[in-house]
């Protein structure tokens, strides 16, 4: 069996983190809000990294701002989705080299962030699914969001 490409590993990790952060229907999560926020953040990072790796590029760093800017370098991003993602960057700023802070997200914060990440997940799966259709010159067609 052939080994997964890096973007495939990132995509799989995104699915796993998102699944762990999402309580089963009708059940309460076994994780607190802070842990679910971290799992959602890791899923966002993994999905964006899958797209960037698929396009053979990397972000400047792994803050939400840098990940989103990296994503915008390879495909257009809906302004509302971008704003929704960036809104939650300041709940925890643990990847920033300038500042470090933590706030406890609300359940509403988590639900809205999860909705945005579900959209990024769909984009990642759709854009990386074109790998089977990649022309021999290696150029990938842009995905319009």
Task: Pick out its properties.
mainly alpha, Four Helix Bundle (Hemerythrin (Met), subunit A), 5 helices, globular, disordered C terminus
Q: What do these coordinates show?
A:
This protein has one domain: Four Helix Bundle (Hemerythrin (Met), subunit A), CATH 1.20.120.330. The chain is built from 5 helices and 2 strands; from the N terminus they run H-H-H-H-E-E-H. The protein has helices spanning 6-21, 33-54, 64-74, 79-87, 107-129; strands at residues 92-93, 101-102. The chain has a two-stranded antiparallel sheet. Helix 1 runs antiparallel to helix 5 and helix 2 packs parallel to helix 3 (64-74).
Q: How do the helices and strands line up, and which of them pair or pack?
A:
Blueprint: H1 6-21, H2 33-54, H3 64-74, H4 79-87, E1 92-93, E2 101-102, H5 107-129
Antiparallel strand pairs: 1-2
Task: Give a brief rundown of this model.
By secondary structure, the chain is mainly alpha-helical.
Q: Report the end-to-end length measured between terminal Cα atoms.
A: 33 Å
**Poorly predicted spans:** 133-145
Q: Whole-number average pLDDT?
A: 83
| CATH architecture identity | Up-down Bundle
């Amino acid at each position: 069996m052939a080994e997964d490409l890096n973007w495939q590993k990132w995509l799989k990790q995104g699915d796993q983190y998102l699944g762990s952060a999402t309580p089963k229907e009708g059940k309460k999560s076994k994780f607190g809000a802070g842990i679910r926020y971290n799992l959602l953040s890791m899923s966002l990072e993994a999905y964006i990294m899958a797209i960037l790796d698929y396009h053979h590029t990397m972000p400047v760093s792994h803050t939400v701002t840098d990940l989103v800017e990296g994503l915008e370098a390879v495909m257009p991003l809906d302004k509302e989705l971008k704003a929704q993602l960036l809104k939650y960057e300041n709940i925890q700023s643990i990847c920033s080299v300038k500042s470090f802070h933590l706030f406890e997200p609300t359940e509403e914060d988590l639900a809205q962030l999860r909705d945005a990440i579900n959209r990024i997940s769909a984009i990642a799966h759709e854009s990386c699914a074109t790998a089977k259709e990649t022309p021999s010159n290696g150029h990938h067609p842009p995905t319009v969001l």
